Amino acid sequence: MPTGKLQIVPLGGLGEFGMNCMAVRWGEDVIVIDAGLMFPEAELLGVDIVVPDISYLIENRQRVRGIILTHGHEDHIGALPWILSELNVPVWGTEFTLAYIEDKLDEHGLLDNADLREMRAGEGFKVGIFTVHPIRVTHSLVDCVALAIHTPQGTIIHTGDFKVDPTPTDNRLFDLHAFAEYGKQGVLALFQDSTNVERKGYTPKYSPTLDAASLFPVFRHPSTASSWPWILPMNTGARSHSSAAP
Question: What phi and psi, each to the nearest 5 degrees, are found at residue 4?
Fold first, then answer.
């Protein structure tokens, strides 16, 4: 057994909805999983957004090897501009997630100096002493992954957000076999999405709110479309938009 101590440092997202951010440290190497913001509750009058306290990362800036994003929801990527303004480190994400954050970083004037690196489910990569293997999961957004992080102490699994959908609209199936294989090999610790875990039953599969065909006449007549307010919920907007595309 290697000598040393594996440290897990939650910076947000525990016992609250949003602000998901967690540091993993072994020796002189720190990686950060997700960089989310939180939308304020009613008592935070006048506050637009809440971001994690990253003082731990700033104190250990020489040890931070990179940020790895599980998916593109605001509660997992929204604080990235604030973190990168303090720590210019590489950022890994899937193709869709990186496309989301490019616009966000461009808006904050950070895109030109950002080191964005694409990762793909099933393809491992090294970050400092850690080896990270993304695992395909399904969620209300496309191109989401869990992370198997191999450390000198053992393997930890970070699921990101997920729901097991056997018929996802993008046909990218939840990789249950990968989870089963890691279970056989042995996992040191599991960090799992627990949203709505207190509720009985199953989360229903995703389906578009409107049939795509019903929207085509609206899109073909701009004068009609311009008079409609369009609201895309954060968690389903991208899929609904892609499902409605002619």
Answer: 135, 180
Which tens digit of pLDDT belongs to each residue from 64-85?
A: 999 999 999 898 999 999 999 9
Task: Provide the Cα torsion 160, 203, 51, 31; round to 10°.
Answer: 0
149, 156 Cβ separation under 8 angstroms: yes
Residues 239 and 161 in one domain: no
Which pair of tokens denotes residue 78?
């929204």
Count structural domains, the chain. Answer: 2
CA-based angle 7:114:51, to the nearest 5? 55
Instruction: Output the six-digit token pair for 44.
Output: 């935070």
Kindly report the pTM of this predicted structure. Answer: 0.82
User: Residues 154-167: pLDDT tens digits?
Assistant: 999 999 988 888 88
Q: Do 238 and 138 reside in the same domain of the chain?
A: no
Task: Looking at the structure, tell me whether residues 155 and 57 fall in a common domain.
Answer: yes
